[in-house]
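Translate sequence into structure tokens.
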Amino acid sequence: MNLDKARSSTTKNMGNGCAVNGVCEDSVPSSAAGQRDTSPSVSIVVPCRNEAKAIDAFLNSLLNQEMGDIKWEAIIADGMSDDGTRKVLEQFGKEHRQIRMIDNPSRIVSTGLNACIRAAAGDIILRMDVHTEYKADYVRRCVEVLRKTNAANVGGACVAVQTGYVGRAIAAAFHSPFAVGGARWHQPTYEGPVDTVHLGCWRREVLEQIGYFDETLVRNQDDELNLRLTRAGGTIWQSPDIVSWYHPRSSLGALFRQYFQYGFWKVAVIGKHRLPASWRHLVPGAFVLANFVVLAAALLGMIFGRGPFSWFTEAGVGMDIAYAVAVLAAACIVAKKEGWVLFPVLPLVFSSYHVAYGLGFLFGIFHFSTTPHGDRYAESVFTELTR
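Result follows.
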């Protein structure tokens, strides 16, 4: 399937007189056809669960969007929240007819997004998350860039902001190429093609052609969808005109759990497509595995004598020294820009990004190679979605 060809075919069919909704131009009086409403219709889809602390601010930011001539609705899939989130959503729904809550009994992001998309009426599907703040023209800019580029998916950079000492360090490191392997969607000023993008905005027809989010994935469902889009010939486009602010985790423990899950579920994506979207996804796992090999060699050397194990130990020590130097250098670069007060904790932040992802990746390899298909909801640290 080629998405660019599919879109051209759709445009051609519409030019021949039939709209996407099946109403043909020649069946409409010429006066009515001349007055046809060309305003974009956007369905904003939002998965959430137990977001009582953030839901009010998100809904108010949504209502403050400068929509212009855009016809819009917001569909929020609630994962059966039990902290008061549902009451807030129900109240907003009563006061604002564009906002609607639906149930997401599976309680994971991918099923919530798909439920929203199926319930949506808009020609354009735009994803939002509760833990993100949006510039007032966010929706309008997404629509403009989508129309201008004719891309399969558009979005802005993931700009991290956080409060508190550790939280500020996590947000600062988030934009370092060293932390994320040079991923362009962490670079706020970059404009152009990317392999994935923060959140996303699609024409409905594109999602119907390529398929919705993979509901077997607790994490990384957006990466997997974008991988399908690019392999089908579509373009994912990042624009600095699309501005939002993401709130990352505020503690090292929460950051470690998050990136452990990212690494774990990345294995499922690679297993499905037999190839990673980018080779940088393999580096943390290889680094952690190498350290396990070095540790094993050191233990065997202690038992049987240095002999053939000494080379592994020495190489491993050299590798870890090089990594430590790289971590300190990256910490200096970030601290110089964001404040030297953050320097003491930045090495721990960088290590959490890398080691957590690498460990998760290795556990993912073990899990998905030994667990029967269909056991994805097993109650464990590997599969539970946490924040």
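Note: The chain is about 50% helix and 10% strand.
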